[in-house]
Amino acid sequence: MPESWKLTKALRDRIYRYATVKQTGVSLRQMVQFGSRPSQGSLFHASHFAVHELPIRLSHRVKDLETLPNGLAREPSIQLVRDWYAQSFEELTALPEPRIKDPEMARLLSGEKQQEEQISGHKKSLEEPVNRPYIFSDDGVVINRRSHSSSKDNGNGEVLIENLNSTHMHVGLLRPRRSYYISTPKDIVYPPEVQNYNKDVTKTLTKIKRRHDATVTTIARGVQSWKRKKNFTYVDNSVNQFLDRFYLSRIGIRMLIGQTIALNQQAMGNMYSDDYVGIICLRTNVMEVAQDAIDAARFACEEHYDMIEAPPVQLYCPEDLEFMYVPGHLVHMLFETLKNSLRATIELQQRLHPGKAIEDLEFPPVKIIVAEGLEDITIKVSDEGGGIPRSAIPLVWTYFYTSANQKIEEYDPSFTSGSFKPPFMGLGVGLPHSRLYARYFSGDLKLISMEGYGTDVYLHLNRLSSSSEPLQ
Hints:
Blueprint: H1 9-18, H2 28-32, H3 40-66, H4 76-94, E1 99-100, H5 103-110, E2 118-119, E3 122-123, E4 134-135, E5 142-143, E6 151-153, E7 159-161, H6 192-211, H7 215-230, H8 237-268, E8 276-277, E9 280-285, H9 286-305, E10 313-316, E11 322-325, H10 327-352, E12 366-372, E13 376-383, H11 430-440, E14 444-450, E15 454-462
Parallel strand pairs: 10-12
Antiparallel strand pairs: 1-7, 2-3, 4-5, 6-7, 8-9, 9-11, 12-13, 13-15, 14-15
Helix pairs in contact: 1-3, 3-4, 3-6, 3-8, 4-6, 4-7, 6-8, 8-11, 9-10, 10-11
GO cellular component, one term: mitochondrial matrix
EC number: 2.7.11.-
Subcellular location: Mitochondrion matrix
């Protein structure tokens, strides 16, 4: 972050006005309606939605960070994250509204016309009607996506896409479109203003996404530092609730940013894939993703313990099991879960055989079993790492409870986003954060432990994917 940047009173006041506005959720189903080859018009709608929705979400988090109790809001790491969010808010709200010179095109892109018609001598194909209802194959619900927008001529032959919402006029906000996805024709030539707007939004979102890469780790440093100063053993319930809300919101923000960037980059580079719509894989192969997570977790384990070969991991999964999901989310959840199981397995054997070299120890395998149901795909990760005492089970779902004897780095004023590598263990955010990833798309993560033997973690993934985001 540039040293000259600072959160001014005027910007803070504007952020707090935005924080009074309700957030708009986006479902996984809606995100994949673009298809593998979206039109520039549909991407325009997605970019415009993101530019107007993200500042609302960011504003809620800035307000939360500034109202943390008991001095936590004054921690340097917490203030650093707040400034990242505030600066991203400022950059998004500074983006100029797109101006479309062609009135017919402007009406289409404002969402005002959502029926089949001729545009600039081109008729829409029957395969891509603008106002086509979308029938969810999993539950038969018909969703008719419309945007009741308005367009205004600025007197110079240009039309400003404005979308003013009278209920939010007191805060001076532009209303985001009702839907992230709006169907537009693919067989017409869109004006350069459309493509230029999509490119500008992609460039801005890419910079913002990179800025926030280290948010989870930086928040962890701030809370850990605050805990030590206050001599707290555990984080109280109000802070845990804040962290749940904050991290869940971050998942949604990054999902919206990542999807918008990926859709635009695929279109600009013509990097189309029938399997992917943005970052969502329509046919996520569970076995392949699980194997990627196994390889990554075992490598991280070998690096941390300076060992030649990590404990074995046995995978039991149908080779052809596929469903619509975000592979990056699944890898994250499995990686964090496997990391815990591998660490518990190694450290139990070290306690049972003191003085024995780590390379001479024999480790029982960690087992991953995948089952397919009508509603869920369930993944069980089982280890023989000694288990967790029953009294400690509730604590594993609280933030910054960890059995690892490792401290994270103190706040460093020279620290910048992306320059800090999270430790293999000791943050105390892995399990609760992974559970949020599961719950983001209506799944869940549960743990059952047998003290003296091992632990089973059950990851339930919702395969229906019709629910909207859990916004708070």
